[in-house]
Design brief:
three-stranded antiparallel β-sheet; alpha+beta; PH-domain like; about 170 residues
């Protein structure tokens, strides 16, 4: 029956996470290179196999994520445009990381609106929830969209006003 058990997060990795009392592990997965990815209430953490290096990302830092079942890879893109993070799962059948990641990112988005511009470029305006439950607005633009252009700025500001107002945030 051990086939159906999820691999345990190694003690050195668990200790290195150094989670506050308000946070807990929701899902974890060993990656193909022996490192680990861990979903907690607050964010996505990655650690090397020995737990000596831990990188933390809040859920509100994630723009989107996708799962490719053929390569067993979760690809995470960031709101700040940093290079995507590819997490190649060692055994995708023994983890709920992809599903948990999806759920946590979705739960961080309270309300969103997409504004479309010429050439199909878009800006996504969202009200998101941080790890402490506080709401804030966020704008993520496609590469090549100039947010300082007066027309773009006006339309994005209007969309931000709508989502902030609809969610009860001050304008």
């Amino acid at each position: 029956m051990s086939w159906f058990r999820r691999p345990a997060l190694p003690d050195p990795v668990r200790r290195a996470l150094d989670l506050p009392a308000t946070d807990r592990v929701l899902a974890s997965a060993e990656l193909a290179d022996g490192s680990w990815a861990v979903a907690t209430r607050a964010g996505l953490l990655t650690s090397d196999a020995g737990g000596t290096t831990v990188v933390r990302h809040l859920w509100s830092d994630v723009d989107r994520a996708g799962y490719d079942p053929e390569s067993a890879t979760i690809t995470v893109t960031w709101v700040d445009g940093a290079p995507p993070l590819a997490l190649r799962l060692a055994d995708p059948r023994r983890t709920s990381l992809a599903q948990t990641l999806r759920e946590r990112v979705q739960s961080s988005v309270v309300l969103s609106e997409t504004v479309t511009f010429a050439a199909g470029l878009t800006a996504r305006v969202a009200v998101r929830r941080d790890a402490d439950g506080e709401l804030f607005s966020q704008v993520v633009a496609d590469p090549g969209l100039d947010l300082t252009d007066p027309e773009v700025e006006a339309r994005v500001d209007a969309a931000e006003g709508r989502v902030r107002s609809a969610s009860g945030l001050p304008l």
